[in-house]
């Protein structure tokens, strides 16, 4: 236990240079500057009892929209937990970024320990942490989901190796939770790494040759993992056609504008805080970088030179093939593959650099493991110092502002966040996005009303009002989306879409009216929640009756 604790502290120490610039009051600019407001919206959901959080009340310029049906929520649940124990929203976001690095280091080290010595595993982990793509993800783009995705991948691979080595109920449950975490952390990370993971599973099963009983039990734990993630995965798949997604793949986000050339991919050290743009003028380092390119190729060549045993070469060959395939997908010559596989949802081809970084860091372990004992320490020290000299300056923000939650979440700062990405996940009931906030908390269409009481939560509205005219038509200031349920004086009423924004509109009779509107769960959301609860119950049962169940596995 003491050794494990020392190793953990060592991994934190390795990660610290990448994140210590975050450990001060204030905040910094980033391209996806919505992390704080997303977390604040998640907080409103949780405190309002909307669990799991799906509909956020204030994004979409105050009309709300179904952000967390489509946007993977796990990093935000983690940061919400940090916020609930007393940290500000801003500090919780910074802790979220820092935690992604520490967790990446921890899980990558645990994975590589199954293949290399502790020294080689630590060496390779260092390079997984200090990749230019990670620096850009945290300090330029503010891509919380992506950097957490880089932590979820080694977690998933490690949990498989742990199951193969231990073959216990607990190791199977670890695989279930790891798979669930992988599926609800970042959608595009899943699309990139799932093929690699499936290839890895086939290879490792071939190498370890487990019996059929073990394979069946593993499939059971994988199904539990899918079940745990169903609260998110099922609505995501089944309800993707309910929102505007075309803006995610058009204009600036069209993939044809964001391919890299070979210099950008393998050799460039040009760092900047600009966006990815058409052509080769990117003022940002989005490629693999020369160090990871060297590690991948030299690590493979050295192990190939020293070992001609086919079984020992299977993993390095798979990794180097994945390295070049993922690198090829960032180049414009791969356009035909993007068209055939319809990869436009990936938006930026350089996202596949994340795969290249993962496998090149893995191959770094083969490099250190196969170097001569006479030079291994000199080479490892030289590579670490060179990496810090070249890449450490990238791990810092361009600017820093002494700003608090109240300043970030008010005035023009708040409006910018509520307006940003307004077309992302905009319900199709809206013909266009709004230009400003709703004019009132209940929109009068015709007739005269006097509102006595009005309340609202994360996904509900309540009004107590008097209709002075014979009748009146009103609309709730939100987008129509499955499934709003509206009751007037405790009786459910039908509604129609009103205006360009598709607001739920209905008729009220003269006199006093009490209105309660709530976004209720569709069958797909109920099914997803039910499967998640069932999977948690199944796992609890496995632990309760672990001794008895061991007889059958």
From TrEMBL:
The chain crosses the membrane at residues 68-90, 97-116, 122-140, 147-165, 177-202, 214-237, 284-305, 312-330, 350-368, 375-394. Keywords: Membrane, Transmembrane, Transmembrane helix. This is Membrane protein 6-pyruvoyl-tetrahydropterin synthase-related domain-containing protein. It comes from Candidatus Woesebacteria bacterium GW2011_GWB1_38_8.
